[in-house]
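Exercise: predict the fold of this chain.
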Amino acid sequence: MEQNILSRNNVKVIGTGDRTILFAPGFGCDQTVWNIVAKAFEDEYRIILFDYVGTGNSDLQAYDVNKYSTLEGYAQDVLDVCSALDLEDTIFIGHSVAGMIGMLASLREPQYFSDLIMLAPSPRYLNDPPEYYGGFEKEQLLGLLEMMEKNYIGWATMFADTLLNNPNHPEVKSDLEDRFCSTDPIIARQFAEATFFSDNRKDLKNVTVPTLILQCSEDIVAPETVGLYLQQHLPNSTYKKMNAIGHCPHMSDPEETIHLLRDYLKNVTPSRRF
């Protein structure tokens, strides 16, 4: 069973440190988005990389439409990997929606995690006025899903541009487009629906794991109002505003990302839950 999970989720383990970091990719991406950042920590930490079922080099035969209709299904992938590797007090670093996926996993099995680090996270992408501004109106997100169905390549180009929001990194935009285009459009659309129509605001108050929120500048997908909302509603959280522009700083600005992660991790010790 353990070996099945490790192959199912294409799990890679590198590094030899005493502490473990589990890197989780965001929507439409696989573990290779972490290559530069993860390499910076492999001399000091045991690094775990994986793909959600349906992305990257995971076992596509294991994809279950019902399971992955909500973020709970992706959280189960995280818990399965933790169980298969017998993890404890792991530092979870998740990009974008993976921040909420890691949070959901920690609510179910907190012993696996010492800290959650959320890079460009959002508990809800839809606006819910007057008290919450997530960045999108429902019509915008429905239009995004419709475009995925009718013109997937065009959607990939548009969405990569939206995520990056920075013309100075054309190579990263091209990389994102390629990643989206390498994912099965049906699976990508279902993941998008699970992501963009999720609402995890009610779960925030129950989190027992210390959390770092890394908020990007000029992030269309997760604007600053969202990061500040998370800071206000996540117990025992730390908020850091990044200079990096856009939604993918681990790809566009890995140096700053690494620096902020190091700065936080130097104070991390096992079992800091309260």
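Check your answer against the key: The chain is about 40% helix and 15% strand.
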